[in-house]
Specification:
Number of domains: 1
CATH superfamily: Aldolase class I
Strand content: 15-25%
Largest sheet: 8 strands, mixed
Distance between the termini: 27 Å
Number of helices: 9
CATH class: Alpha Beta
Number of strands: 10
CATH architecture: Alpha-Beta Barrel
Structural class: alpha/beta
Length: about 240
């Protein structure tokens, strides 16, 4: 069964070794696999090349659409597994796009990688079926707030948020652009009773200056409300680039 991956700047599949830039595993060495396609459309998405293809009229602040053929590549599961193993890491981060849209193929991939510690980055609207779920060690769940441009009825599904809130493998990461965004997180925390210590606030931004400016006031809000703060380490190290 094939997987549909995003492409790096060379046109090859976006499979690479780096350090995790966000969330509870920030700084950990790992291999990343970035899959293509998403069921949401965040106006500030920094990987719009995984979903904002020609003919897609959903808004994005950059106003750019991407040629699907140049930004997607299809590989058989066996080849993806071989590329991951060749990078020599024992931690795997599967990201997107929304990777759980390709759950059956992902389950086959992870069957071939039984010794990997696996993180899945998800927007929290989808469910991993059992053959995949049993092979995932960590969910990095990033529900999308109103400023993402996604309507709540698509982005904040009570059934899915209830399920992740009760799963000890799930960590929540909220993208924050303005202080008022934290009010939305507080409402969600109270509604879904997220586990203490499992909620990160992360500044929105694709350059170091923007991140630092927002972190200055975001740190105070984390202290006030008991949230953890996540930087975007890869932005400081590599900029807003593919394959990093």
């Amino acid at each position: 069964m094939p997987l549909i991956l995003a492409t790096d700047d060379s046109g090859g599949p976006e499979i690479f070794a780096s350090v995790q830039g966000e969330g509870p595993s920030m700084g950990s060495p790992c291999t990343f696999v970035r899959l293509s396609r998403c069921n949401l459309a965040c106006v500030w998405c920094d990987t719009a090349y995984t979903w904002h293809f020609e003919g897609d009229d959903r808004p994005h602040r950059d106003g750019v659409t991407f040629e699907r053929k140049a930004n997607q590549v299809t590989l058989e599961v066996a080849e993806v597994a071989a590329r991951i193993e060749a990078l020599g890491q024992n931690r795997l981060v599967i990201t997107g796009g929304e990777p759980l849209l390709q759950a059956p193929a992902l389950a086959q991939l992870l069957e071939r990688l039984p010794d990997m510690t696996v993180e899945v980055e998800t927007n929290g609207t989808t469910k991993a079926p059992v053959p995949l779920d049993i092979r995932i060690d960590q969910f990095n769940v990033s529900p999308k707030l109103a400023h993402s441009g996604n309507p709540a009825e698509l982005a904040l599904l009570p059934e899915r948020l209830d399920a992740y809130a009760t799963d000890p493998r799930a960590w929540f990461k909220f993208v924050i652009a303005e202080p008022s965004d934290v009010d939305d997180v507080l409402l969600l925390r109270d509604r879904y009773r997220f586990r203490p210590g499992h909620v990160f606030l992360m500044p929105e931004g694709t350059d170091s200056a923007t991140l630092r400016n927002r972190e200055a006031w975001l740190a105070e809000l984390c202290v006030k409300h008991g949230f953890r703060m996540s930087d975007r380490l890869h932005i400081h190290l590599f900029g807003d680039t593919r394959g990093t």
